[in-house]
Amino acid sequence: MAQGPRYKVAFRRRREGRTDYRQRARLLRARVPRAVVRTSLRHTSVQIVDFDPQGDQVLVTAHSRELVEMGWTKATGNVPAAYLTGYLAGKKAKAKGLEEAVLDIGLKVPSKGATVFAALKGMLDAGMKIPHGKEVLPSKERLAGKHIGDDVEKMVQDIKKRMEAN
Questions:
Q1: Would you state the pLDDT for residue 129?
Q2: Which of 100, 144, 161, 162 could crosslink 153 through cysteines, CB 3.0-4.6 Å?
Q3: Do 123 and 155 form a contact (C-beta atoms < 8 A)?
Q4: Domain range for 32
C-alpha cells in the first residue's frame, strides 16, 4: 500500500468494492427516486430509495421471501420470482403515489435477460415509469417460468391476481 503525506485513502465502501461513487452520483443527479435491485442466488430485493443528505430514505421495499406467503413454492432466486418481486414493489410504490424511478443495479454487469431486468419488467408492468432499453428485458417465456416447469406459469398468474386484489 502506498505511503506518505500525499497519499489519500479511498472511501471504505470503495475499498471493499461495494459502491461505485461515480455511478451513484450520476443516478442522484436525476433527482428521481432510485429503484434499487439487489439479487443473490437465493433471493431478490427491490427498494425504492430517495436521497437525503443525512442518509438515503427507503420509501418502499419488497423481498422475494414475501412471495412464499402468497403461495410461491419454487426457488426465490430465479427470473419469475424476481419479476414478481419487482411487480410487488411497483404495486407498493403506486399505492404510495410514486410514479417514476431510475434503475440502480449496483455493481452487477448489465447482461440481457438478467434477473435485475426481470425485476425491472415487474415494476414496469405494475405501472411505474423507469427509463430502459427494450432489448435488455427477459422474454415472456422466461418471465412466466416455462423454462422451470409447466406449473410455474399458472403460479405466476395466481400470485399476480392476489397482488392486484390487495
A1: 98
A2: 144
A3: no
A4: 14-165
> Does 28 reside within a domain?
yes
The C-alpha atoms of residue 93 and residue 115 are separated, in whole angstroms, by 20
- Residue 139 binned pLDDT confidence (cut-offs 50, 70, 90): very high
pLDDT digits (tens, 9 = 90+) for 36-95: 999 999 999 999 999 999 999 999 999 999 999 999 999 999 999 999 999 999 999 999
**Residue 89: which H helix or E strand, with range?**
helix 79-95
C-alpha cell at 41: 442466488
Indicate whether 6 belongs to any domain.
no
DSSP 50-87: E--TTS-EEEEEEETTHHHHTT--S-SSSHHHHHHHHH
What are 98-116's pLDDT values in tens digits? Answer: 999 999 999 999 999 999 9
Which of 78, 73, 75, 160 is CA-nearest to residue 113? 78
Residue 24 lies in a domain: yes
pTM for the model: 0.92
- Number of residues written out for the chain: 166
SS3 45: strand
